[in-house]
């Protein structure tokens, strides 16, 4: 009965967690120990029913000498008996751990997953199956508690993450050994598991027995239950964070821009998840961003000091600019500088600003006949200028050092508008235009004198007046869904 019960239990867990689909090709990690041998046998028994294909992978760490070689020989022989193809690899884990500056335990884990992922790609596999069980789950949760982890760490090991599945995660070690014993299946015993050299071993062999002795509770059951409860809470928080992320996102392309004002109204529990979502979209992974980085980012936008930035892993930065939290590659300039001479009549396409400028010279009579009055709002995409003052050698371009504008105002000599005009940089600062946006704004200019900050402001110096003989009508239009080709055909 043990065989039927365990097979049914694993099958139901696979279905419940939606771990695999019919026709899946599985790369199965097999160390030779009880857990991995049980996993391989269970998947073999369910192979036809689940319609799956199996390929075993064994990694020799080279840490236990003859014992490691024995495990390798055992796995190869077992796979031959069960008619399962197997690939064997050797990695000098001691040397790798020294090279990476990490423990042998961590180096071994990294090597195993890297090798299995490579096999997955080379063989066209679908999933990697590993043999973590209930005790592994409890040990992982305890390790994370001791590290001071948050709710994500308390959730422990997921049944599925990316292309890695764990079909035995709800099966106890006792159930595994009982299954193997009743079916007369042998396995290898890793002598290092009985020691206390590794953190996981100390938790398994010393801490858990001591907890059970002192408090008369099974720590495995309690920690597995804790992980399930934490997972439910995490799912709610994650769903909430993703929903609220859409409320604060301002740009989500080469750089991520979030509303700092919107973020300040949120609780830290949601804030931290939103920051991790932004990091994931920026770096294509949630790895490497640590709690200290998140705390620095939160302090950054709470203080709202424009120009300040935090250096993040993998060459990224988080900076604050006029109530915008910006994530981008360090030193990367998203904007491209541009400059095009403006045609007296016709169309000037500006690829970098994603739009085009149409120009047309009108006589005073034509201007009046068409019903124009020249009182367009400053934000209007159509403006009227004195061609004789502006038309010769004018250009549409991005900003340059030394640019000035004399903003048009009905009140002559308005405060701050000197005869020589106002520095364009000062104008942008006053209007709180983010630094990273300034190079993208198209300008109509004659030399360093700006006639039109398109969509924002015109100059008193070049505007059409009652005595203007040749009125230059300039019309700006942004490219829409079809891009410049569609616009050119209009």
Structure, described:
The termini are far apart. Strands 3-2-1-4-6-5 form a 6-stranded mixed sheet, sandwiched between helices. A 5-stranded antiparallel sheet has the order 7-8-11-10-9. A 5-stranded antiparallel sheet has the order 12-16-19-20-21, with no helix packed on it. Helix 5 (93-100) crosses helix 6 (104-123) and helix 7 (134-146) crosses helix 10. It folds into 3 domains: 2-226, 3-Layer(aba) Sandwich (Rossmann fold); 253-329, Uridine Diphospho-n-acetylenolpyruvylglucosamine Reductase, domain 3 (2-Layer Sandwich); 339-488, no CATH class. It has 490 residues and is of the alpha+beta class. The protein is built from 19 helices and 22 strands. Mean pLDDT is 88; it is low at 411-418 and 481-490. Helix content is 43%, strand content 20%.
User: Within the CATH hierarchy, at the fold level, what is the topology of the largest domain?
Assistant: Rossmann fold
| Strand residue percentage | 15-25%
Name the CATH homologous superfamily of the largest domain. Answer: HUPs
Question: Count the helices. How many?
Answer: 19
């Amino acid at each position: 009965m043990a065989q039927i019960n365990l097979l049914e239990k694993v099958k139901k867990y696979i279905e419940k967690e939606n771990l695999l689909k019919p026709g899946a090709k599985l790369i199965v990690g097999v160390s030779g120990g009880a857990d991995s041998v049980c996993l391989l046998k269970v998947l073999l028994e369910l192979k036809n029913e689940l319609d799956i294909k199996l390929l075993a992978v064994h990694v020799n760490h080279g840490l236990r000498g003859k014992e490691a070689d024995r495990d390798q020989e055992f796995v190869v022989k077992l796979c031959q008996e069960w008619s399962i193809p197997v690939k064997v690899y050797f990695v000098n884990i001691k040397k790798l751990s020294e090279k990476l500056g990490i423990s042998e335990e961590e180096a071994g884990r990294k090597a195993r997953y890297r090798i299995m992922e490579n096999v997955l790609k080379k063989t066209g596999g679908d999933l990697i199956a590993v043999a973590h069980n209930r005790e592994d789950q409890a040990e992982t949760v305890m390790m994370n508690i001791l590290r001071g982890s948050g709710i994500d760490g308390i959730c422990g090991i997921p049944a599925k993450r990316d292309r890695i599945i764990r079909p035995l995660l709800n099966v106890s070690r006792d159930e595994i050994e009982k299954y193997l014993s009743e079916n007369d299946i042998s396995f290898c015993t890793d002598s290092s598991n009985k020691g206390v050299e590794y953190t996981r071993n100390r938790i398994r062999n010393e801490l858990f027995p001591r907890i059970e002795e002192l408090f008369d509770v099974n720590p495995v059951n309690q920690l597995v239950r804790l992980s399930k409860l934490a997972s439910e809470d995490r799912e709610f928080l994650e769903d909430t964070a993703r929903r609220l992320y859409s409320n604060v996102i301002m740009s989500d392309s080469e750089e991520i821009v979030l509303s700092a004002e919107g973020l300040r109204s949120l609780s830290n529990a949601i804030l931290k998840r939103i920051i991790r979502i932004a990091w994931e979209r920026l770096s294509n992974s949630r790895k490497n961003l640590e709690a200290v980085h998140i705390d620095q980012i939160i302090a950054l936008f709470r203080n709202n000091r424009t120009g300040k930035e935090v250096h993040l892993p993998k060459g990224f930065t988080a900076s604050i600019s006029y109530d915008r939290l910006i994530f981008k590659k360090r030193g990367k300039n998203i904007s491209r500088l541009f400059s095009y001479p403006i045609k007296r009549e016709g169309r000037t396409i500006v690829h970098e600003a994603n739009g085009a400028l149409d120009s047309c010279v009108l006589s005073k009579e034509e201007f009046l006949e068409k019903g124009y009055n020249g009182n367009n709002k400053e934000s209007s995409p159509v403006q009227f200028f004195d061609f004789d003052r502006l038309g010769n050698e004018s250009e549409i371009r991005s900003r340059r050092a030394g640019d000035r504008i004399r903003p048009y105002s009905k009140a002559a000599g308005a405060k701050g508008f000197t005869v020589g005009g106002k520095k364009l940089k000062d104008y942008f600062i006053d209007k709180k235009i983010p630094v990273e946006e300034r190079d993208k704004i198209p300008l109509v200019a004659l030399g360093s004198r700006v006639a039109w900050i398109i969509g924002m402001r015109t100059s008193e110096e070049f505007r059409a007046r009652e005595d203007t003989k040749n009125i230059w009508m300039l019309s700006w239009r942004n490219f829409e869904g079809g891009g410049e080709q569609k616009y050119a055909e209009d």
